Amino acid sequence: MAGESTRQAPAHVVILGLGPSVEAYMDRVKRLGGAHALADEIWAVNALGDVFTCDRIFHMDDVRIQEIRAAAAPDGNIAAMLSWMRKHPGPIYTSRAHEDYPGTIDFPLEAVINSIGFSYFNSTVAYAVAYAIHLGVREISLFGVDYTYANYHHAEKGRACVEFLLGIAAARGIQIALPDSTSLMDACAPKLYGYDTLDVEIDNVDGRARVVFTPHDRLPTAAEIEAEYDHSRHPSPLVKEPASAAPLPEMFGGMPTRANEALYRLLTDYPEVSYILDVGSGDGRHAQIMRDHGRGVVTVSMSPPADHIGDFLDLPDQDKHFEAIWASHVLEHCPDPGAFLRKCHDLLPEGGILAVTVPPAKHEVVGGHVTIWNAGLLLYQMVLAGFDCREARVSGLYADGPGLAPYNISVIVRKRSAELPQLKCDTGDIELLAHLFPVPVTHGFDGRLNPINWH
């Protein structure tokens, strides 16, 4: 299934999430004698597609990324979910359909954005609600859409996005129904995000709360929204479109992390990159920035938190679906950097992006740092791993921010596989490989290179 389903749009849909208020759905179906006595169609999110009989399933994570996570925990929930997804006839709306999952169908993202005039969906439920608005349904009932999980910050972002979309739905005359037991909307009722032009009434009808939005004639201006919205009264943050996020240089100005400039280059200069493997992800700060700017990310680290915990070299080989590999301050910890870079070469498709940052060579010996680097040595190792570096971008030495000492050397290269000549691992090899470097090099060249193709 590669394209959008052509079935007739339902009038009333139920969207099922994983929260505790899904029990209200089960009670209601039992009383009515069947799911379709409640609504025309039942839509389920992620693993619930295998729990309930439903008409459409939404699973927005690319299954190729989920396969990486499943390989790290073969007895876990993700592996079990992928198992039934391979057999399910669908439709399963997802970010990318795959033939070995015959029920998957490409989510019509562009059509949905053009239809509803909004382009930021940060949870699978948000995609489902947006799709319902796009289809022009008359009523949306939500069960289990509670956002009560432990990661409060992540939960509140998800909640705010869904509530914002429900406001769009209500403004179009779509009725919204919620069970009494849900926590959705409780932070913002009776005013939605401080909009005094949208009144909310909650009526208890047959054991569930029917939320009725009454839009006024005039929508609020941006200045009025800014003046009315008060985080102290409404703890759910107003989710904005990615375009309104702080520019990356400003965002990075106060970030206590490394390789800010290289990450900025990766996210701004390669907009086609949507799936990134973050190797040596540490506490996940870089991965979070990537996700905040719309990228799918899989993290690998020797210690939690990470999607794959263990040695990068042991990462199971999968289809070449990562469009970029990010390795910031990792290579200096590798006893065999050549093996590391060859693994990167194996995982990337032709045209994929490798972005590596290392610290400059220093005389002090510190725990964990077992190799020393300059830009020339990094390029040399990349060439030996099979990368044609003629168009590589080299940062030169740079600092993380104003007033800080320079501590980063970055190289970004688009994978073009190089066929290496017979080498001697001795004098003369540089000349044999010189055609694969971005600048003229000879035996004994100074590896402390100035920026190349960087700005």
UniProtKB/TrEMBL annotation:
The keyword Methyltransferase applies. It comes from the Bacteria. Pfam families: Methyltransf_23. Keywords: Methyltransferase, Transferase. GO terms for biological process: methylation. InterPro entries: SAM-dependent_MTases_sf. One of its GO terms (molecular function) is methyltransferase activity. This is Methyltransferase family protein. It comes from Oceanibaculum indicum. The lineage of its organism: Bacteria, Pseudomonadati, Pseudomonadota, Alphaproteobacteria, Rhodospirillales.
